[in-house]
Amino acid sequence: MKFTDEFRDTELILRTSEEIRRLADPARHYRLMEVCGGHTHAIYRFGLNDLLPSNIELIHGPGCPVCVLPMGRIDDGLAIAAGNDLIFTAFGDMMRVPGTHGSPLEHKARGADVRIVYSPADALKIARANPSRHVMFFAIGFETTAPSTALTLMRAKAEGIRNFSVFCNHVTIIPAIRAILDSPDMRIDAFIGPGHVSTVIGCRVYEWIARHEGKPIVVSGFEPLDVLQSVVMILHQMERGEAKVENQYRRVVPWEGNRAALKVMADVFTLRSYFEWRGMGFISQSALALNDTYGDWDAERLFNVPGIRVTDPKAAQCGEVLKGVLKPQQCKLFGSECTPENPVGALMVSSEGACAAYYQYEHRKSQLVSIPA
Amino acid sequence: MCLAIPAKILSLVDNPAHGAMVEVVGVRRRVDISLVEPEGIAPGDWVLIHVGFALSKIREEDAYDQLRMLAALGETEAAVQEVRGYFEDTAELQAKEDSYP
Q1: What class does CATH assign to A1-309?
Q2: 20 to 30 A Cα–Cα from A255, which one of A52, A106, A249, A305?
């Protein structure tokens, strides 16, 4: 047990685990996808697989923003920075993600002006403090970070700050779930819905998954008990032959989402007709771009974008792992050529990537040599 | 980036910044609260912060649960680093830039 010391409700966790064993039909195999990378991290960290019967399989979904970003977009962003002598800003998560000619951090080591920011608002502050330089913010993330980029752009426009732009890579979660359901090699029985994304988009937007696809989806918190309770709620639905949207994470997620956040996103962004996702290919209407009102702050309009497309290294099987077709440890490079210290694919970079999470908690455990007493 | 960091509102800062001084894991910083203002925010309230912006108002007990969760995931240090990273004004920015290798 990995959480005994950290959570008060160990008893309840064990009882919930027993309830899952009672509810699961031994004649069935259950494939449940946790959409969010935060859940993937928590599942490995707390060893939740050990608390589930072997016929409940957790499939790791596409909800890790740096993992699904195609390498070509990183190359494009870095090429714009190099070609225009500008200040390239991005979240720390992006800094070690490999591009064709190295990560942003390696570009910095070679002399590029690359700076970590923890908030898009800080990228704007760098622009205010350096009026003679152009500052580009490399924006990534789902609906949890898109509103903050939108508000920052609204502020830049209101203040008339013209030496600031956004290279927008924001993606939206619903089209990715649709792509998964449309994919012939993925049979998912139900979804553990994302927590913090749902804070913004709410729960109603998932209703088509239940109504039209016949799959249960339960929006879940991140603690061990949250995830296990969500599994119970899913099994109850399946036992009754139902499919509906339920909200296990009511203490944080309102059913209607955050209207103010949705409003600022609608004011600043427009849907791209399509966007490439690593491992999943092109998904229509799955990403955001700046709308015409914010065209003057759109790095893709201000600068020439090379439009680089890169196929992942042949031996790395990030795509299969991202779609849940392969487990991380089944990839040929896992743990040998591709490690968190020296990542080949993005799934090994972020702690929310399935490979990094598996490596950190499961792989090391399996490498321990037990010493006879 | 995907960390949801619980923070306690200390004081509200005048518009148009829509800011509030918050304390989070022992660090005081200004964050943007415009996305939770419709819910009504007052000193003493707790919010969940993503990349410098409050996205939801939460109960105090849930805030402590979330802090324990961050610790269990080994992400407290990352959260402290993130919040320290939100800088306040030009002087702080200069100090930060001076510290770049």
Answers
A1: alpha beta
A2: A52
Q: Where are the domains of chain A?
A: 1-309, 318-361
The whole-angstrom distance between B56's CA and the closest CA on chain A is 7
- Nearest chain B residue (CA) to A40: B73
Interface of B with A (CB under 8 A): 1-2, 4, 16, 32, 34-38, 48, 50-53, 55-56, 58-59, 62, 65, 68-69, 71-75, 81-83, 85-87, 90, 93-94, 100
Which domains does chain B show, CATH number per domain? 5-98 (2.30.30.140)
Alpha-carbon gap, residue A344 to B28, rounded angstroms: 37
| pLDDT tens column, A131-145 | 999 999 999 999 999
DSSP states along A329-355: GGSTTBTTTB-SSS-SSGGGTSTTSHH
Render pLDDT for A234-279 as a digit per residue (tens, 0 to 9).
999 999 999 999 999 999 999 999 999 999 999 999 999 999 998 8
Model confidence pLDDT, tens digit, residues B39-49: 899 999 999 99
Mean per-residue pLDDT, A221-234 = 95
Chain B nearest-CA distance from A119, in A, is: 5
State how far the Cα of B89 lies from the Cα of B13, in Å rounded to an integer. 14
Which stretches of A189-249 are DSSP H helices?
A: 196-201, 207-211, 224-239
β pairing state of B19-24 and B53-58: unpaired
Q: Which of B50, B81, B87 sits opposite A122 (nearest CB)?
A: B87
The reply to whether residue B52 touches residue A144, judged by beta carbons under 8 angstroms, is: no
Contact between chains at B32 and A148 (C-beta distance less than 8 A): yes
